[in-house]
Specification:
Helix content: 55-70%
Shape: elongated
Subcellular location: Membrane
Number of strands: 2
Membrane topology: Multi-pass membrane protein
GO molecular function: G protein-coupled receptor activity
Organism: Mytilus galloprovincialis (Mediterranean mussel)
Mean pLDDT: 74
Structural class: mainly alpha
Largest sheet: 2 strands, antiparallel
Number of helices: 4
Strand content: 5-15%
Order of helices and strands: HHHHEE
Protein name: G-protein coupled receptors family 1 profile domain-containing protein
Length: 153
């Protein structure tokens, strides 16, 4: 009910159809990202939770073989639980264009795009450029310059 009221309020407050479509795309992408990350979090943490429950019943009177099996099960469920962080990174890369662009800027020094405005977040960016000397054919030290602008959320 609250979601429907919010949707109707958005239709009233945003008069431009193209802006409304862009907000709809952004909203769906954000919803998908949150849904997939939440579902994978549940999938990744349920096995370790089940392990803790079964360990409390098996551990007090377990023999060496059972304890060894429980250690292997602990290691596997523990690693699977932490796979959530790795999977989140790839989910963000697939569903969030702002995250993908920021990641590529950091890793590949691709910061020559002019800042764009979307939303109301003010972001200061650092630009790094490598200058190649034409006469010597060798790279000089990178130069760093500060610039400010609006960046998409």
């Amino acid at each position: 009910m609250v979601l429907m009221e919010s949707k109707e309020l958005r239709k009233i407050s945003v008069s431009d159809e193209s802006t409304r479509k862009e907000l709809g795309k952004f909203s769906r992408a954000l919803t998908n990202m949150i849904l997939f990350t939440s579902l994978y979090f549940l999938v990744a943490t349920v096995p370790v939770s089940v392990y803790f429950i079964t360990e409390s019943y098996l551990a007090p009177d377990a023999d060496d073989l059972t304890l060894a099996k429980m250690d292997v099960a602990w290691a596997m469920t523990y690693l699977f639980m932490f796979s959530n962080y790795v999977v989140n990174f790839f989910l963000y890369m697939m569903t969030n264009t702002a995250f993908k662009r920021a990641f590529l800027e950091i890793c590949c020094c691709v910061v020559n795009k002019p800042p764009t405005r979307r939303g109301s977040r003010f972001v200061s960016t650092t630009q790094v450029s490598v200058v190649t000397s034409l006469t010597e054919g060798e790279k000089k030290l990178p130069t760093v310059s500060q610039s400010s602008g609006f960046d998409p959320i």
